[in-house]
TrEMBL record:
Residues 1-23, 74-100 are annotated as: Disordered. It comes from the Eukaryota. Residues 90-100 have a biased composition (Polar residues). This is Uncharacterized protein. The lineage of its organism: Eukaryota, Viridiplantae, Chlorophyta, core chlorophytes, Chlorophyceae. It comes from Chlamydomonas eustigma.
Length: 100
């Protein structure tokens, strides 16, 4: 047997150039996924979805008699809940000035 250096000859990694291209594609897809996740979290936060869902779950927990199907109950609670007012985050704070 001849002594040859160990090479990765698997079909997924035929050479270094393909490896770099694959890594670049992976990194690009990963960055897109992170951005999408961040935008989705901001969307949920802007509409206070998680807060409202938690309030609906707490109301369900506090029921003296649990409904047979909790989904319509939760939907009704969320539909009828109103988000609390939030301070705008992308506007500068307004200052009030006293005359005198």
């Amino acid at each position: 047997m001849s002594s040859t250096p160990n090479r990765d000859t698997s079909p997924g990694r035929p050479n270094a150039e393909a490896s770099t291209l694959g890594d670049d594609l992976f990194n690009e897809a990963y960055e897109k996924a992170l951005l999408r996740k961040q935008l989705f979290k901001e969307y949920l936060s802007r509409h206070q979805v998680l807060e409202r869902f938690n309030l609906a779950l707490e109301a369900l927990f506090d029921c003296s008699e649990l409904p047979e199907d909790p989904v319509p109950y939760l939907m009704d609670k969320m539909k009828n809940s109103r988000p609390t007012a939030r301070k705008p985050t992308n506007r500068p704070n307004s200052a009030t000035f006293k005359n005198g």
